Amino acid sequence: MMHAKFPLEGYIQAIAARVAEDLQGKIDLTTLRWTREPGKRDVEDQTYSVYIDGHDPRDGVVLLVSNPDFPNAVRDGVVQASAVSGLLSPETAGHVITPCDSGQWGEQTWAAFPKFTPMSDSRLIGYAQKIRFAPRVADWLAEVARETRKEHAAPAKYGELFIAPLRYLCDADDLSPALRAAACGYLDYVAEIQPRLFTVVEHTDLWLGNMFFARGAGQRWPRLMGDFYVVDWRGARTDGYPAADLLRYCQSIFLHGGSRPGMLLRDYGRHLGIDAFEMGLYVLLSIGRLGMNLDQFPRAKYIELSSDLFEFMKLHLFQHFPWALPSGPNGYYRPDVK
């Protein structure tokens, strides 16, 4: 099958045929089509993605194939998703999408996933999905954090995880002055106080585009009656930071503000026993470590995303708590820490 502008490469068609064989003919190869046209890539290691419908609508798949320049990209994502699932209880791991088939074709790695649906394009249904699923996603993230929480006391590891990313932000003169000032204030606090901090599993790119949904049973509002699933675990960290995933997710679905992001963050913090000051620290640690490990991620895009996330955090996190962001070195000490 050919797309009007972009032909489906022969090796992708061959991989699709392999998937059809592995799945015992449950998919219809005549429906093979791009999920998005492979034009200019946002990042160099971006994968190719195609839909294949099932003869039964429940059997359709999304096939991911690594691009020729980064042949191991898809396999790396599968390995990381499996690693994350292995750290979670079966119920919690059930929201991590793992492939129904995977393999290698020449140098290219590939994986087929159940064909769940993205958020509806309908303004009404999409809004209803956001309202219904946001608290469930927040509760799930809190459970992920509870199940994978790990404290680090060894000085070398503590410095690597909780000091180096803040120092990086302080020294990055192309980032926003406000973000750098907050990072420097947190750096002073962490270096002097040495608070007990912990890591959790962190997706690192949890936004609306990586959230999919299964249709529920019944004829009325099936998109609202199913469950949610998270894809693209390639950049996930088992030594990640709490709160960062939830903040990114809220930023992607609540574009026009409102009180819901702050409420979700407050409840998340209560579940984990951390306040806004600590959540702000963890978010900046996540931003800093991303900057230290950009790999194929464009620097200009990182600067923009970091600034946007920081401003969103100031607006929706700190308005609900009696803490203030650090304003610079020696600029903040918590009143509850002597």
Can I get a quick summary?
With 338 residues, the chain is α+β, with helices and mostly antiparallel strands. The chain is 45% helix and 12% strand. The chain folds into two domains: 10-114, Phosphorylase Kinase, domain 1 (2-Layer Sandwich), CATH 3.30.200; 123-320, Aminoglycoside 3'-phosphotransferase, Chain: A, domain 2, CATH 3.90.1200.
Q: What is the CATH architecture descriptor of the largest domain?
A: Alpha-Beta Complex
Q: Which range best describes the helical content: under 10%, 10-25%, 25-40%, 40-55%, 55-70% or over 70%?
A: 40-55%
- Global morphology: globular
pLDDT below 50 for ≥5 consecutive residues: which ranges? 1-5
* CATH fold label of the largest domain: Aminoglycoside 3'-phosphotransferase, Chain: A, domain 2
Q: Kindly, what is the distance between the CA atoms of the first and last residues, rounded to a whole number of angstroms? A: 68 Å
Beta-strand content: 5-15%
- The CATH first-level class of the largest domain comes to Alpha Beta
Number of domains: 2
Average pLDDT over all residues: 87
Largest sheet: 5 strands, antiparallel
